Amino acid sequence: VQLVESGGGLVQTGGSLRLSCAVSGITFSVASMGWYRQAPGKERELVADVTSGGTIRYVESVKGRFTISRDNAKNTVNLQMNSLKSEDTAVYYCGDGGYWGQGTQVPVSS
Q: Which residues in 47-65 are b (16+ Cβ under 10 Å) and which e?
């Protein structure tokens, strides 16, 4: 099983980034996929997830700013992040609840 995140990087407050996660080794189309983040000194938290049926949920702090999507043809799950805030600074991981990627850093500078 392999999950590979990409798209992170330094961004200014108010900016946007699009994270992508390429998944292999699982039956992607039936998996619930999520984006998680871990800020320095904090526990990992769920940011957003999407079920195989397309049900989506977001943590309250990102509602209206972040959009999760999945492409079952490409085995990818994406996270569009807009209006970024300094408190969004974290390492972002994709996962299916059992497996995780290596993470991609998103530092947001004020």
A: bbbbeeeeeeebeeebeee
Residue bearing tokens 């904090």: 42
Contact of 85 with 13, CB cutoff 8 Å:
yes
Distances in whole angstroms, Cα of residue 35 to Cα of each of 30, 38, 82, 85, 110: 17, 10, 15, 17, 23
Tokens 């980034």 sit at which residue? 17
Q: pLDDT tens-digit profile of 44-67? A: 999 999 999 999 999 999 999 999
Query: pLDDT category, 109, cuts 50, 70, 90?
Result: very high
